[in-house]
Amino acid sequence: xxxRVEFTTEPFDLDEPPRHALVARDVIxxxxxxxxxxxxxxxxxxxxxxxxxxTVDALLRRALEAGATRVSLQVNVVGESGESGESGESGExxx
Length: 95
What we know:
This protein is α+β, with helices and mostly antiparallel strands. The protein has 2 helices and 4 strands, in the order E-H-E-E-H-E. It has a 4-stranded antiparallel beta sheet, with helices on one face. A hairpin with a 4-residue loop joins strand 2 (34-38) and strand 3. Helix 1 (19-30) runs antiparallel to helix 2.
């Protein structure tokens, strides 16, 4: 199964990325995921379910330890093996 994760960390700082945001970015970029898109107001990545779920665990733990007071995330099945999932989504790109 293939998953897509989208997440943000808070609190925001428009002048300089806070430590928790940098840590979250490092976690997602170091993971064995595809289609990683890191932006100032949200981040997305796709990959196999094991890789995504392992990354989400590390992301939550490390971002919270680095000072995040809130982590908002969404995980969607983007399907690969004919399983029911959310495919054909459009108009979501914001970066």
